[in-house]
Amino acid sequence: MANFNYQDIREAAYESNMQLPKLGLVLFTFGNVSVVDRAKGVFAIKPSGVPYEKLSPENMVIVDFEGDTIEGDMRPSSDTKTHAVLYKHWENIGGIVHTHSTYATAWAQSQRDIPIFGTTHADHLTTDIPCAPPMADHMIKGNYEYETGFQILNHFKDHGLDYREVEMILVGNHAPFTWGKTAEKAVYNSAVLETVAQMALLTEQINPNAPRLKDSLIKKHFERKHGPDSYYGQQ
Amino acid sequence: MANFNYQDIREAAYESNMQLPKLGLVLFTFGNVSVVDRAKGVFAIKPSGVPYEKLSPENMVIVDFEGDTIEGDMRPSSDTKTHAVLYKHWENIGGIVHTHSTYATAWAQSQRDIPIFGTTHADHLTTDIPCAPPMADHMIKGNYEYETGFQILNHFKDHGLDYREVEMILVGNHAPFTWGKTAEKAVYNSAVLETVAQMALLTEQINPNAPRLKDSLIKKHFERKHGPDSYYGQQ
Amino acid sequence: MANFNYQDIREAAYESNMQLPKLGLVLFTFGNVSVVDRAKGVFAIKPSGVPYEKLSPENMVIVDFEGDTIEGDMRPSSDTKTHAVLYKHWENIGGIVHTHSTYATAWAQSQRDIPIFGTTHADHLTTDIPCAPPMADHMIKGNYEYETGFQILNHFKDHGLDYREVEMILVGNHAPFTWGKTAEKAVYNSAVLETVAQMALLTEQINPNAPRLKDSLIKKHFERKHGPDSYYGQQ
Amino acid sequence: MANFNYQDIREAAYESNMQLPKLGLVLFTFGNVSVVDRAKGVFAIKPSGVPYEKLSPENMVIVDFEGDTIEGDMRPSSDTKTHAVLYKHWENIGGIVHTHSTYATAWAQSQRDIPIFGTTHADHLTTDIPCAPPMADHMIKGNYEYETGFQILNHFKDHGLDYREVEMILVGNHAPFTWGKTAEKAVYNSAVLETVAQMALLTEQINPNAPRLKDSLIKKHFERKHGPDSYYGQQ
């Protein structure tokens, strides 16, 4: 047994990665969760291409915000640089999740924002779920995963979105990324996104002219859970 | 261990709440069941935002028909006032369930009644499953969950529906509520609603001109189960 | 413990009924299987409205071909007379299954035959899966379940179908019935029907002009499994 | 206990066959996996029509590249000759899988290639997933399963596809075949195909004009996993 540092984020990353198959969000190795340690400027992330049943806290890889491995014998997830860019620029997030969950990925492939149709959506965010366009060719041919991070950052900037309020995005033609103050919250957001994505598709199938949720309901439901006078959950 | 009263409804509420994840009707904490004690004028309901695996009879919250907590250290479900209004005005119901189950919620988001297409539906009610419109802005901005209860009561009144015969409703843009003489029946109704909602969507996809069930079949199937000469189930 | 007769068909009916929830074909008590004893002129069938987890060989009800109970303290399934009519007129069937499985029921509600689109279907039957029209009002108002049996018999007669080759039907606005030489085969047919029903819907969604399977393939696949020179399975 | 040879491929075939029900790719006996031993010129394949729970390494059937049984008391899968033809002509494959998985089969029934809509697809192959047309009547009436193998070979030849890069095909009106360097990889490909097939259908439902993935992204994602500079997974 080697003597590993970063035990807290290793264990948190391991626990959160193991939630993905339990929640039905991943097939085989399609997905990864990371957990950051802001004080040390590193995050723990799933090793690349390793089946969930072979994961352990010990084989999580420790990476810095440039995407360089600090500790670990295995290669980190191929999406590591996307995580690194987000941690570097968004200082309030504690965990990031990437999956190819079925319905969210179908929306990403459709290159459409997910319209806000109901309170299940409004309990979590007040806008449509954004879908960033596919990247420009020069970004793809270059440092692809690094540029994916900037595609996300720029989409938020260009559309006036705040990553502390909208904790999820679809990358066009690719798949979703979610985040949160903790990895646990980021995983929760991935499951919520998948459910909301399925409900939105079904809603359009039942009524192709279904209206978006009206502003008063958006505001009410979000404030129930998130406003200064929130009254959902325990204090 | 504190010394709790209302043990019967605590246990019944706990058992019924635990049925929701088993029946696939809830993700995380999206749902709640309550059980009333008519003699004491109170009901037991799930605490707000607590995961199902942490529920126990002891942490169910006891609330009166004004929605005020009578016993319990935790906040009751954020939907508590909706339950309170229904118990107060509909004296024959013993339990209420609220979920965001996928297909029923998609119909609610579509703001359409679920058409009665077959006997699976008619075995349980003889009308389309009603969808109340989204509430007026002043109701939303005010005492929202309390007004949700009145939105349901008024929709039944305006459409001549009897809550003893139609034990479920969709609240437009939101999600379903179901009820019954017991919480067990209300949970059963939630699962039936989800299945009927899925079948109705599939029916329209297979045949966009599918006709509603004819009156003679509606009558027959409902009376098999519910009429004075019912012959379904044991005596 | 009472001293029961008909132990063989009781146990076979019990075992086959218990397959329905395992195969995902029923919710709560929506479904029933019966097994016939031709020599004694009776069949064993699920009691009405009893949850699957409370079934036992002992509480199966023994009924004759007129639908009258021969042995058993409980009411037989409300669909018992339909089973009785089919056993009486179709002497080569050993078991019957009725479910409200989701996709098959959606086709029944759509009042459409399920087109033969592929070899999964052709491995089991060479025609579209028939959907009998909803019954005439006088049949519904009269001895409904008895008439349901005749609706099935007459649809087969009118369309030149042979119940030994086509072991399933959709009853319009209602749900499927399947049968077979044994109850095990009838249960198998219910699961095959549900899968074929789902595939057919998806096929039309992917290609609204998808052609029906051509005759040479229909013939080949059915004969692989069922013809005099069949070579599927063990001898 | 008989004294069996070919123990390695028996065990590998058994293990891979048992993965199919675990991955939700088969109902009852609908599916089969084979594993080849190139040195001995034989492969091990599932016996025909035997339920998965009764499989064992011992009842796998050993067959040569003409489709003749070399060892085993049971009949091999009715699709054995298709496997034999592929092994004979494609010398780099180590395992073959045939299933009737729901979404892939629906695409096969629709007689459409599955468009490449996203990176989930591009991580595995750079082209649409090919759908071979239904066979000509004389091929069906003749040595059907043998000709199915040639239908696959010819479709690849006619469309300039390389079986080492495109490890899956839909046979029109029938169902998918997948392969790989190992049976484990072939099973993996079957599960990937089913997921990609579902995502592609959902994508078209969300956006009927969804564009195919652009070339730069196709190239990037495939090379991440498969090119000379691949950086997915461990070395």
From TrEMBL, chains A, B, C, D:
It is an enzyme of class 5 (isomerase). The keyword Isomerase applies. It holds the Pfam family Aldolase_II. Its cofactor is Zn(2+). Keywords: Isomerase, Metal-binding, Zinc. It catalyses: L-ribulose 5-phosphate = D-xylulose 5-phosphate. GO terms for molecular function: L-ribulose-phosphate 4-epimerase activity. Its EC number is 5.1.3.4. InterPro entries: Aldolase_class_II_sugar_metab, Aldolase_II/adducin_N, Aldolase_II/adducin_N_sf. Residues 11-201 form the Class II aldolase/adducin N-terminal domain. SUPFAM superfamilies: AraD/HMP-PK domain-like. NCBIfam families: PRK08193.1. Belongs to the aldolase class II family. AraD/FucA subfamily. This is L-ribulose-5-phosphate 4-epimerase. It comes from Olivibacter jilunii.
